[in-house]
Amino acid sequence: MTIEPGDRVELAYVGRFENGTVFAASDAAVAHEHGLTDDPESSAFAPLSFTVGAGEVIEGLSEAVVGMQVGEEQTVTVPPERAYGDHDPERVREYDLEAFEAMVGESPTVGRHVEAQNGLHGDVTAVTEDGVQVDFNHELAGRTLVFDLRVLSVE
Questions:
Q1: Ordered alpha helix ranges (H), 45-133
Q2: Phi and psi dihedrals of 100, rounded to 5?
Q3: pTM of the predicted protein model
Q4: CATH assignment of 90-135, among 2.40.10.330, 3.90.70.10, 3.90.1150.10, 3.40.50.150
Q5: What is the DSSP secondary-structure string of 19-53?
Q6: Parallel, antiparallel or unpaired: strands 73-78 and 121-127
Q7: What's the CA gap between 78 and 141, in Å, rounded?
Q8: CA 101, CA 90: separation in Å to the nearest integer?
Q9: Does residue 13 contact residue 25 with C-beta atoms inside 8 Å?
Q10: Which of 26, 35, 96, 111 shows a CA-CA span of 20 to 30 A to 44?
Q11: CA dist 144 to 24, 81, 106, 117, Å?
């Protein structure tokens, strides 16, 4: 059965950057091998299941599986515009230190993940005496992503 838009698919995958660094995997042993988890048997890693063309995954990945069949493997390169978009400097915001602490309820630290009152999620990227910088871009924005895919099932 050839995959078409509207089909529900399940994929095994490894996601990496162009330099080969793995950022995601559906298999815990692979994730462990690349330092994504300390537990090579973690249940947090599982095949990716989605409906093709329904907007449940990035556009480039959903488009890539059209025409594939169960058992087929493919390596797909997805540019930023077909993934999480380009990094937008307008989505990097500066906050007064006191205002940030009042909004978040905690002191800022670089790397802290925050959720703004408008529902946006971001990461603290800098903390100075004058303020806090929060980047509301997706962490993979601006990156070209490479996926090794294997189709496990199609419904």
A1: 59-64, 97-104
A2: -60, -50
A3: 0.85
A4: 2.40.10.330
A5: TS-EEEESSHHHHHHTTS-S-TT-TT---EEEETT
A6: unpaired
A7: 12
A8: 22
A9: yes
A10: 111
A11: 14, 9, 34, 30
